[in-house]
Specification:
Strand content: 5-15%
Organism: Dimargaris verticillata
GO cellular component, one term: cytoplasm
Shape: flat
Subcellular location: Cytoplasm
Number of strands: 2
Distance between the termini: 66 Å
CATH class: Mainly Alpha
CATH architecture: Orthogonal Bundle
Helix content: over 70%
Protein name: P53 and DNA damage-regulated protein 1
Keywords: Chaperone, Cytoplasm
């Protein structure tokens, strides 16, 4: 009976990971659409632009529409970051449930690799600047 319970928990965590991966893909598509909209608004010389809000179109000043899209971009980026963190946590949880231990995973070294964070653009810039200063 415990085997069935363990397997169902693993399956649930795996399904959550797959769902979150699809959610990130959907967020990326929406973010790309917003980028296209921002670019079109920047190219536009019209004082007002039509904006789709839910199930209706509203004509707004171009600057207002652009700021609305940029705010949505920020919300989408935050949602993507949260979802990716959730994927990492669930992957870590799934691996812990499986109890995999190989030579490279001793002392939890493999699990700690999931906690890595990428460098931000600002950090990369400072690294490049310090490398130039060293030369």
């Amino acid at each position: 009976m415990d085997f069935v319970k363990d397997q169902s928990e693993r399956e649930e965590v795996g399904e959550t990971i797959l769902f979150d991966r699809q959610l990130v893909i959907d967020y990326d598509r929406r973010r790309n659409s917003n980028r296209e909209a921002l670019r079109a608004l920047q190219k536009s010389s019209a004082p007002k632009a039509w904006v789709n809000l839910g199930d209706m179109f509203i004509r707004l000043p171009t600057d207002t529409a652009s700021s609305m899209v940029q705010e949505e971009q920020g919300r989408i980026s935050d949602a993507v970051d949260e979802t990716r963190e959730r994927i990492k946590e669930n992957a870590k949880k799934l691996e812990e449930m499986d109890g995999l231990k190989s030579a490279t995973q001793k002392n939890g070294a493999h699990l700690k690799a999931f906690d890595l964070k990428p460098l931000s653009a600002q950090e990369l810039y400072h690294i490049a600047q310090s490398a130039k200063d060293d030369n």
